[in-house]
Model the fold of this input.
Amino acid sequence: MKSETRDDLDRLFHRLCTDFGEASGKTIIRTIIEELGGLRLSFPDMREMSREERDMRVRARFRGNNYDELASYFRLSPRQVRNIIKKGK
Done:
């Protein structure tokens, strides 16, 4: 295992133990390893995660013809709203 990856895992373990308590942190890590151990995973960064959440909210509020309203609300162009809606179909 690369030391960079090991350092990332150590940071994650420390944060889980700090945020949820040591016993819960260990349980969370153990569960992840039991379910996904051996797999190579890639997680989205927070910016990408926020974009995905925004896109889900855009699609949830879409009523068939309110592109301009959604564009204004989410500070997007009407074209971006159309692309988000199209991508979700």
